[in-house]
Amino acid sequence: MAEKIPQNIPFVLKCWHGLSTSLPPVTIPFVKSGRNGQPLNISVSLFSALVLSTINVIMGKSLLAIGFPENEKVTQETTGSLTAECHSNTLLIGLAFLFLTHKYEPAAKMATAPLWWQECCDAVISFCIGYMIYDFMFIIVSAENGVLSGDDYTFMAHHIMTTMYMMQTRIYGAGHFSAMICMFLGEFTNPFHNGYYILQNALSLDCCKSVLLENVQYVNTFIFASTYVVIRAAVGPAYFLHACYDLVVNGQKNGLPIWVITLWIILIWGVVYGSVPWVQLCWDMLMEYVPDSGKAQEL
Questions:
Q1: How far is 117 from 176, CA to CA, in rounded Å?
Q2: Taking a C-beta distance cutoff of 8 angstroms, is the pair 159, 84 a contact?
Q3: Which of 60, 91, 101, 141 could be joined to 79 by an S-S link, Cβ 3.0–4.6 Å?
Q4: Tens digit of pLDDT for each residue in 61-107?
Q5: What is the dihedral sign for C-alpha 179, 180, 183, 189?
Q6: Within 13 A of 68's CA, how many CA atoms are on the CB side?
């Protein structure tokens, strides 16, 4: 039976706790949760994938209603970005409150936290896994002429790797904070990043083009590019160095096999390496805002 949640915890975490404890369990055979020894429950992930798929359909219908073309790539991309906005903002809020309510230790065992916090953490991580499941299927379904592109395969590989990382934190019952800091810093710029694509696509259509949207895109592009450069080139690597250090020093003490620690470190720095072209692109975007740079112009 789930621990009764304290009344003084934030309302946001009460919602995540309710999600974690109210769904009927769906378990993976022969796989157990490292935090409680019970069969690994994936009901939140499956439910989240279903909800996000429903949101995708609703967003698609809404875009058609305001003049987006039917069965066109611009509509599919915008639909996907709007759904990703819902995921990013929901996930970021959940992660922020988890960080605020428990000591940050990248390699710690989840069982060191109060049971209610463990259930909230499980739900937030499972929600992110649910998005990976949804988006993996969305990529396949929306492939142009049924043919996957190089970018499609890259995103699918990313989803498989990140899902494996998050699932392993649940299976071993440790290292969840190392995954959460990657999730938080990785998702931090996504509301602006997806906003960039949404506005860019809207401005390409007669139904939505306006001076107001152009001005909003001008501001949003600056926020996106500047936060991306700062997070991916400075803040992220600093946190990741600390997370990797803690995994190496304390990971095995907390039940993490050396091969898992090694894999996680490779995945963490693989994402950092994969961000380099985007950091350069965002830096070039920022140069557009610098007077006398030779590039300054209205986006």
A1: 12
A2: no
A3: 60
A4: 999 999 999 988 899 999 999 999 999 999 999 999 999 999 999 99
A5: negative
A6: 22
Angle between helix axes 73-101 and 176-187 (nearest 10 degrees) is 130
Estimate the share of the chain in helix, then strand, then coil, as percent rounded to the nearest 5. Answer: 75, 5, 25
State how far the Cα of 89 lies from the Cα of 188, in Å rounded to an integer.
9
DSSP assignment of 199-230 equals HHHHHTSTTT--HHHHHHHHHHHHHHHHHHHH
Q: Does residue 128 carry a pLDDT above 90? A: yes
- Which tokens sit at 275? 């961000």
C-alpha to C-alpha distance for 143 and 49, rounded to whole angstroms: 19
CB-based burial of residue 175 (10 Å sphere; 0-12 exposed, 13-18 middle, 19+ buried)?
Answer: buried
- Tokens, residue 140: 């396949």
Alpha carbon distance 59, 81 (integer Å) = 10
